[in-house]
Each structure stands twice: as structure tokens, then as C-alpha cells.
Amino acid sequence: MTSSTTSKSASQLDARQERDLKQAVQTLWVRFPGSLEDRYRDYAERRAAKLIQRSLYILIVLFLIVSVPVSLLSDEHNRDLWMAYGVYPIAISLALLFVAVKVDALADWVTTLIGLALMTSLAGTLLGALHLAGTFLGQVAAFETIYVLIIGFSILRLPPTRTLFWCLGSLVVALAVALLQRWDVDPVSLMLFYGFPLVVCALNGYMLDASARGSYANNLLLGRESARLRQWRDNADREALRQRTLNEFMAHIAGNPRVEVLMDQALTFMLERTEAIAGAAYRLDDDRLRQEAARGLNQQARERDNVPVDGLLGGALERGPGVTVRHNVPAGYLDLEIAHGAVRPGELLFLPIWQGDQALGVIELAALEPFDDHTRTLLESLASPLAYALMAAVGREEYIRRHRQEAG
């Protein structure tokens, strides 16, 4: 299982699944909650295919080491029978394994082909051991049966219940053929070379599977913890970036500038720090929105000096504090001027400026691509200091205007 798959699975864990996994790893037999059991089975099947792909040539070499010397050196009269039961089925099984892991078109049938290969080889060696009982080659077939069981539960590493199903299926096939052919079946010999080895191999397979389940669960939990730590670190980095940007913004608008200068500075700062490529800043003056600054707008948008508190701007302002976005931008509204002509924005962002219960204005930003969540959060953090600065600037201009009127 790759690290990316582990991270993906870990990130999809909810609190209940995480709690159940922590309880499960404390038990001898790990069972996964809900859909995690299906995920593990898929993982176990992929692991089996990968193990076979890595060990296939070793299995072929082992098969040749056992079969070639016996077939060449043995002068038993029943050698052809042993070849038919103990060599050809295993060769067919190895061919099935080779096709299963090498042909991409059969990727969905890998586990079925592995099971059929195991069943074919076991059925063949069982038939050879039953039919050639009491002979040297019969003993060879019996030992081959044990070897195949060991390989099936320890190397193939399919889920043990599925492996046990294929093994019992081979036993049913072998006994059915033996009964139809009226062979003498010695139950004691069958238990010695098949029954007891099957029980031991199955127990070993379940123990290996329990260990693999524990490792899988621990990997998921570690991935979950890593994802949580990574999220905390990202949150801390974003908070540090937000605070640094806020400090830079406050320094950028400092100096008690006039309203027009203040709004232009704020708009310029927002355009530089976001993906927006155009925008305008409006101040609420009685029941009109007065455009104080504009950047990157076309001629039609720049002429919107006094806008009634309605439409998109008014709707954004009436919703109260907090960023709002508009995906479906009306045709002709705030078209962006680029080298190839006017382009309709992909998304509009409205940042209302409120001081307590008093609306002061709104900033409108346009971008070709949607604004991400980080940008929205960042812009919302700038609204409060901008509102204080705007209140101070408006109050200062009102004071200067009254003073001039009284002086005149």
C-alpha cells in the first residue's frame, strides 16, 4: 500500500472509526468498522498480487527443483500418473499466476485467478497422493500438497478465509473424483498429509492476517495523527500569515490619510495580496455608494461614481459583515480589460465594511478564477482595521469641513 493511499484512507477516518480502530488494535483479532473492512480486503488483495509478482519466478524455480529431478531420475512405473497429477496441474497454476499478475486487462480478476491456481494445484497433488498411495511418487505428491498449502497461506497472503475456501474446494473436487473412480481413500493418510497441515497452515494464515491487520490499523492511526498534526501546523502557518498580513495592512494604511487615499491604499493592498486583478472601493454616503478608488476597471465600471444601494453592491452590503461571492457575473458587469479584449470575471468578491451596526462601504474585487477559502478569511480579517481607519478619516473630513464652514 502506497503512502498516498494510506494518507487518503487516514484522512477519511471519522471520529467513530478512529475510536473503533484504537479499540481494535488492543484485541487479538482485529476487525475493522464499516467500510474500513472493505478497504482492508481490497488492500489485502492488492498485496497478494504484488507478493506473487515479486515471488513468481522463485515459485517457478522451486517447482523445477522438485519436479525435474524426480521426473528424470525416477524409474517408477507410475511416473506418468504422477506427472499428470503432481506436475502438470502445478504448471497450469503457475501459468495462471503469471497471467494474473502480468496481464493488465485481468486486473479485476487477479484474486479469482490466484484462487483457481491454488485450487488447481492442490486438487492435482491430492489426486496424485490418493491414487498413488503407498508408493514413492505418492509420497512426493503428498509432500507437494503440504508445500502448496504453505505457499497458499504464507506466500500468496490472500485473506485466510478466502484461501481456506479454495483449499476446501480442492478437497471436495479430489474426493469427488476419487469416489467416482472407486479409489481406496485412507482417512488417516488424508488427515496426515492434508487435514493436519491444512489446520496448521490456516492458523498460521490467520495469525499473519491478524498481524497485517494490526499493522494496517496502526498505519491508519499514524496517518490520521500525521494529518491532524499537519493540519495544526497549516492552521498555525495560516494564522501567522494572517497576523503578519494584518500588521502589514495596518502599516500600509497608517498616517491618517484622506478617505480617497485610504480606500485606494486598501484596494491596492488587497489586489497585490490576492488573485484579484481588478476592483473598486465604495463609501456609503447617505443612500448612495460613492466610488473612492478603482483599479483595473473598464471605462464603464469607472464611471459608476454614485451607485444606489441596490443591485449586487447593495445586496452584499445588506447581508452584513462577512465576505460574499458571486459566481454568475451578469454580462457587461465589471468586464475585465485584457490584451485580447474584455473578459467577464469568473468570480466577484464583496467585502462589506461595517463598524458595529453601521455600514460604511464595500470593496468589490474581480478575478478570473474563484477565490479560495484562505483569501476570503484573509480579506475578512482586514475589514475591521479598515473600518476603524475609515471612520477616523470620515470624521476628520467632516470636522475639517465644518471648521471651514464656520470660518467662512
From TrEMBL:
<protein>
    <submittedName>
        <fullName>Sensor histidine kinase/response regulator</fullName>
    </submittedName>
</protein>
<feature type="domain" description="GAF">
    <location>
        <begin position="258"/>
        <end position="400"/>
    </location>
</feature>
<feature type="transmembrane region" description="Helical">
    <location>
        <begin position="110"/>
        <end position="130"/>
    </location>
</feature>
<dbReference type="Pfam" id="PF13185">
    <property type="entry name" value="GAF_2"/>
</dbReference>
<feature type="transmembrane region" description="Helical">
    <location>
        <begin position="189"/>
        <end position="208"/>
    </location>
</feature>
<feature type="transmembrane region" description="Helical">
    <location>
        <begin position="136"/>
        <end position="156"/>
    </location>
</feature>
<dbReference type="GO" id="GO:0016301">
    <property type="term" value="F:kinase activity"/>
</dbReference>
<dbReference type="InterPro" id="IPR029016">
    <property type="entry name" value="GAF-like_dom_sf"/>
</dbReference>
<keyword id="KW-0812">Transmembrane</keyword>
<keyword id="KW-0472">Membrane</keyword>
<feature type="transmembrane region" description="Helical">
    <location>
        <begin position="56"/>
        <end position="73"/>
    </location>
</feature>
<feature type="transmembrane region" description="Helical">
    <location>
        <begin position="85"/>
        <end position="103"/>
    </location>
</feature>
<keyword id="KW-1133">Transmembrane helix</keyword>
<dbReference type="InterPro" id="IPR003018">
    <property type="entry name" value="GAF"/>
</dbReference>
<keyword id="KW-0418">Kinase</keyword>
<feature type="transmembrane region" description="Helical">
    <location>
        <begin position="163"/>
        <end position="183"/>
    </location>
</feature>
<keyword id="KW-0808">Transferase</keyword>
